[in-house]
Amino acid sequence: MKGICILGSTGSIGVSTLDVLARHPDRYRVVALSANGNVDRLFEQCRAYRPRYAAVIRAEAAACLRERLMAAGLGGIEVLAGPEALEQIASLPEVDSVMAAIVGAAGLLPTLAAARAGKDVLLANKEALVMSGPLFMAEVARSGARLLPIDSEHNAVFQCMPAAYRAGSRAVGVRRILLTASGGPFLHTPLAELETVTPEQAVAHPNWVMGRKISVDSATMMNKGLEVIEACLLFNAKPDDVQVVVHRQSVIHSMVDYVDGTVLAQMGTPDMRIPIAHALAWPDRFESGAESLDLFAVRQLNFERPDLARFPCLRLAYEAVGAGGTAPAILNAANETAVAAFLDRRLAFTGIPRVIEHCMARVAPNAADAIESVLQADAETRKVAQKYIDDLRV
Ligand SMILES: NC(=O)c1ccc[n+]([C@@H]2O[C@H](COP(=O)([O-])OP(=O)(O)OC[C@H]3O[C@@H](n4cnc5c(N)ncnc54)[C@H](OP(=O)(O)O)[C@@H]3O)[C@@H](O)[C@H]2O)c1
User: Fold this and answer.
1) CA-CA 20 to 30 A from 17: which of 42, 60, 358, 388?
2) Which residues, judged by CB distance below 6 Å to any ligand atom, belong to the binding site of ligand 1?
3) Could you give the CA distance from residue 245 to residue 181 in angstroms, rounded to a whole number?
4) What is the Å distance from ligand 1's center to 193 Cα?
5) How far is the CA of 313 from the centre of ligand 1 (A)?
6) Residue 236 and residue 246: Cα distance in Å, rounded?
């Protein structure tokens, strides 16, 4: 029986993870859960899964959760508060696996703590890896942690790769990694209409139900840009070896093209419980609860090139990974600030790439040789991005 900690248990990935775990009580014991401020959902999860620890960010939320747990006769669950509590639960000795499912930069330090502690790190929180890149991978190598990708694309690539891929994707005969992208809700929207699209339209993804931030990232295709950077790091690949393919049906989750002309693809219904169950059971397989794929209902698979004029965020992500150092952290911080402003109706949808381009021109990248340099680039970029957004409004 393995012990698991779920960072971000109240989010879309966290809820799907608990759904899969509920099918396999003989394989995993839930040791710790965490949320930002959604005390109602965390309380319900504590009641259903009886973790040893529950962590939230603010002290008031912790007090409220503690009171409700006591009233429900669940006073044995220890409630922790503050960002450092997340690092603590991610490195507990009784935890074997950590599902990193916090959204954005807030997940960096706890995910890094899990890697440093040598856990099995089930990585959904792509922003943590994009920000800290080689530093994160060095910690994984040093501690012997196992990194299992949860993003459906990277999980697909992982399934199509030979075991020796860490030596470099070219070294194992890979010509290209083909990352598929649905194209999001605005793939065919007239360009002139993008200026006025609303947050409600942007989060209405055609194939996947996800948290709000990643849904907007899918609409701008920054999600695919972050995934290109993630693929370079996870599979030791060059940016030129990672190609994005728009595939509207979201049935092929990604492919690996080998030098002998073989292309391996991983397919399935668009349901995140599939990659989650794959990583939880790996190297075995167990039931995820997802429907099996009905190819007769799918009938056809289509592919097209991404349009970089429509999706400038994808181009900016390739530029950031090419620049290296703290450039991906700058890209990520500018994007997080811009997406938050868009969701708050303080910035137009088309303003998102403008903010990122501005920050990439203004904030000089440095070597990402220490976590402090990454955090400093993140903080500086957020200030520059916020000022630019505020100036656009006057
Ligand atoms: N959803 C998907 O299908 C999908 C697919 C692939 C990859 N991912 C990646 O997985 C990650 C999670 O995505 P999601 O869609 O599950 O997001 P989500 O639904 O928005 O959930 C985010 C989780 O993080 C917590 N959180 C938010 N801000 C926090 C903070 N400052 N400190 C601590 N915890 C915080 C939230 O707590 P509260 O509920 O209390 O706010 C929630 O538990 C993202 O990096 C995303 O890119 C998601």
Assistant:
1) 60
2) 8-14, 35-38, 57, 101-103, 106, 124-127, 151, 208, 210-211, 213-214, 272
3) 6
4) 29
5) 21
6) 23
